[in-house]
Design goal:
By secondary structure, this protein is of the alpha/beta class. It is built from 6 helices and 7 strands. 37% of the residues are buried.
């Protein structure tokens, strides 16, 4: 990413008011009694307007939320303040961000795919830490945005990317998350 990406994301976030409800997948994972993810230090990668970071803060996580877009982070700060939630919003280009090693109990990634960043996210987790990752599948290009295959997962690719973790939950298909639905893969995994 760079200046062009920053400009594009600032324009997109400034024009789109969007939904501030957290991801249904994240809510499902944190509500499940099948695994318990205790509050701790969390990282929200490509937070956008912070909907998931603010939700984690409401669940007693100490959250660092990173995004390249100053416009998105400005909106996120306003929303967090209005909801009385403390989140550390950080403006950074994730391609060049230096994620602290072994610092997080939970890392989340929603609707963003940078395969080169995954190894850094894994290293940022403490042993025993969890990752919740959900983004678009290749099938999504048939029904909407995004269409670029570089930003779309192949079938079972997310499982392959986390083969070195203990996968606790995985789903793949078309899911509604406050709209008509999108093709996504989602995973909860634990660093061993």
């Amino acid at each position: 990413m760079g200046a062009n990406d920053r400009k594009r994301w600032n324009e997109k976030h400034a024009a789109n008011h969007g939904d501030d409800a957290p991801s249904k997948f994240l809510e499902e994972v944190l509500a499940s009694r099948a695994w318990l993810i205790p509050p701790g230090r969390a990282l929200d990668v490509a937070t956008g307007k912070g909907r998931n970071a603010i939700y984690l803060a409401s669940k007693k996580f100490r959250v660092d939320a990173v995004d390249i877009s100053a416009a998105a982070l400005q909106e996120a700060r306003k929303t967090a303040l209005a909801k009385g939630q403390a989140v550390n919003f950080i403006e950074a280009d994730l391609e060049h961000a230096d994620l602290p090693r072994g610092s997080y109990d939970l890392v989340i990634n929603f609707n963003f795919l940078d395969r080169g960043l995954i190894a850094h996210m894994k290293k940022a987790l403490k042993p025993g830490g969890h990752i919740v990752f959900e983004t678009y599948l290749i099938d999504q290009r048939e029904i909407g945005h995004p269409k670029n295959p570089a930003y779309l997962l192949g079938h079972n690719e997310l499982l392959d990317l986390f083969r070195d973790f203990r996968v606790l939950y995985y789903r793949e298909g078309k899911f509604a998350d406050g709209g008509d639905g999108a093709y996504k893969a989602g995973l909860l995994a634990q660093k061993t």
